[in-house]
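Please decode residue identities from the backbone states below.
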């Protein structure tokens, strides 16, 4: 399972629920889309392209690989 959201500090974020979600194919697919792993937040991030279409494209790609995805086109509020 992944969370895909824009974040003011990190750009577009694709966060796996667990390390088991990060198969070699998923790592490669996200890297091809310009994402890099950020170990501080344990998620893939991309500074460019974090609008609604980008969120949908990334979420759809992860779903095509068989993952459940929660996504939001607006940044999640800090609690």
């Amino acid at each position: 399972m992944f969370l895909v959201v824009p974040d003011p500090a990190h750009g577009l974020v694709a966060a796996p629920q667990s390390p088991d979600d990060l198969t070699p194919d998923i790592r490669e697919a996200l890297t091809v889309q310009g994402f890099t792993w950020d170990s501080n937040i344990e998620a893939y991030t991309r500074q460019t392209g974090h609008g609604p279409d980008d969120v949908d494209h990334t979420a759809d790609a992860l779903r095509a690989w068989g993952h459940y995805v929660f996504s939001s086109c607006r940044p999640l509020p800090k609690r």
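Observation: The two ends are 22 Å apart (CA to CA).
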